[in-house]
Amino acid sequence: MVNFVEKLHRLLNEESLKHCISWSNDGLSFVIKNSTVFSKVVLPVTFKHSNFVSFVRQLNLYNFHKENRNYHRHDTITDEERAAEPREYSHKKFIRGRPELLKQIKRKNSPVTKNKENSKSSNSNTETLDCNNQTFNIPTVESNDFHLNKFALNLFLI
């Protein structure tokens, strides 16, 4: 299965999209030339959504950084003008012509993911909760946040 970073790398090698997204001259970053066009043309086809903010959130989860190249002039420009300004992002392992480095780019773990990993590593299918001087073993559920289980149990005990 191709992950987000691999899709992005392939996307940047598409000649037909150079008007929308391309590598920087040095190949150490990439530039989205117009976020509105990118959202309407590229995102729905490649990432199955058209939300630019979600795309940027994914970049952040993989430790990409926005380059400040003084594209943004000042606060008095319109939203339309701001969307038309280029946005540049980089990652030290995301380099033009170096697809072998992509496997080294890892997604950040969320706090929920860390809790799941901890419970898996101890081979335990329960989490322990101390409440009102009583101890409860709560089954861990892959799709639920442990904090939600705590909240539900506290409501039950009231």
From TrEMBL:
Lipid metabolism in keyword set: no
Keywords per UniProt: DNA-binding, Nucleus, Transcription, Transcription regulation
GO cellular component terms listed in the entry, alphabetical order: nucleus
Keyword Transcription: yes
Principal location class: nucleus
SMART domains for this protein: HSF
Protein name: HSF-type DNA-binding domain-containing protein
Natural source organism: Clydaea vesicula
